[in-house]
Amino acid sequence: MNKAIKKTALIALFAAVSFAVFSYGRIDIPLAAGSKVSIHVANAVVVLCALLLGPVEGGLAGAIGLSFADILDPVYIVSAPKTFFCKFMIGLISGLVGHKLFNISKIEDKKKLTVAAFVSSIAGLGFNVIFDPLIGYVFKRYILQIGEVSANFILAWTSGVTLFNAVICVFIASLLYMALRKPFNRYTK
User: Fold this and answer.
1) Which residues contact 56 (CB under 8 A, 6 or more apart)?
2) Does pTM surpass 0.90?
3) pLDDT band for position 35 (50/70/90)?
4) Strand, coil or helix: what is 77?
5) Which of 30, 50, 130, 159 is the most buried (most CB within 10 A)?
6) What is the rounded CA–CA span in Å between residue 63 and residue 149?
7) 126-185, pLDDT tens digit by residue?
8) What is the torsion angle, in degrees rounded to the nearest 10, for the CA atoms of residue 26, residue 63, residue 79 and residue 118?
9) Which residues of 4-40 are buried (b: 16+ CB within 10 A; e: fewer)?
10) Which positions ≥6 away from 121 have C-beta within 8 Å?
11) What is the pLDDT of residue 1?
């Protein structure tokens, strides 16, 4: 099979998995002004894809899958542009750290591989912990013109839940990468 077609198919597969994990495996927490935030592990799929396929591929898979999930949910639809940017950056950063800094695909030592996977995951998800709530706050406060008290309340909850999600996703993405790396590489070669 053509390498470009295979890579495109894998991006679509990871986009579909991230969509499904978010759409059907989240716990919603209602907030002020009709908003909500979700506990979910879909970002782990974005990081996993970035570590398995590469930074741009991981970013695209997450951006596409999770943006579609937002577009199809009336409460999250206004967040789709922010989601596209933040999820793309999670994959890009995780993938760049993993592939460019650690050269993760060539590491054979399990201890070094574990460290590389964790640090790569922390880098991408760390970006999201800062920028997802911040961009959401600016959008809600200044574009949607939600009151300051409501926007601050939403920011506080969103920040906490985003951090909680990130911690869980670091472990899940790293463990999945460690488990799937060899079988995935055998399949894609």
Assistant:
1) 91, 92, 95
2) yes
3) confident
4) helix
5) 50
6) 30
7) 999 999 999 988 988 888 888 888 888 888 888 999 999 999 999 999 999 999 999 988
8) 60
9) eeeeeebbeebbebbbebbbeebeeeebbeebbbbeb
10) 47, 51, 94, 169, 170, 173, 174
11) 65
Residue 171's identity, in one-letter code, is F
DSSP assignment letter at 75: T
Position 84: which residue type? F
pLDDT value for 3:
86
Residues 6+ apart with CB under 8 A from 109: none
Query: What pLDDT shows up at residue 189?
Result: 65
CB contact at 8 A, 88 and 114: no
Q: Which residue shows structure tokens 């890579």?
A: 7
